[in-house]
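To close the chapter, one final illustration. This time we ask the reader to focus less on the individual chains and more on the assembly as a whole: which components sit near each other, and how the overall shape emerges from the parts.
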Amino acid sequence: MQTIRRQIISLLEKEEMSAKEISKAVSIREKEVYEHLEHVRHSLKNRKKKLVVNPFRCGLCDYVFKDRKRFARPGRCPQCRQGRIMAATYRII
Ligand SMILES: [Zn+2]
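The assembled structure is written out below.
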């Protein structure tokens, strides 16, 4: 558990990645990545680093989920009510 989080942190310190890319890199499911990101964000608070989120975006109307508190992928767009959501990406700076 701890090791996966450390792997995710070192990946995101090097490059910006989506949850799907992280899931492939550390061999866990995308759903689990979102849970880990929650803890990663928390643990970075004491380290003068932060997790920067480039938020989910609707692929049809360009609606940006910028005030989203949770990490998990949104089901559909509140503006056009479609489900073509473009992945968020994450980076640690
Ligand atoms: Zn939309």
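The chain has three helices and five strands. Residues 30-44 form the longest helix (15 residues). With these observations in hand, you are ready for the problems at the end of the chapter.
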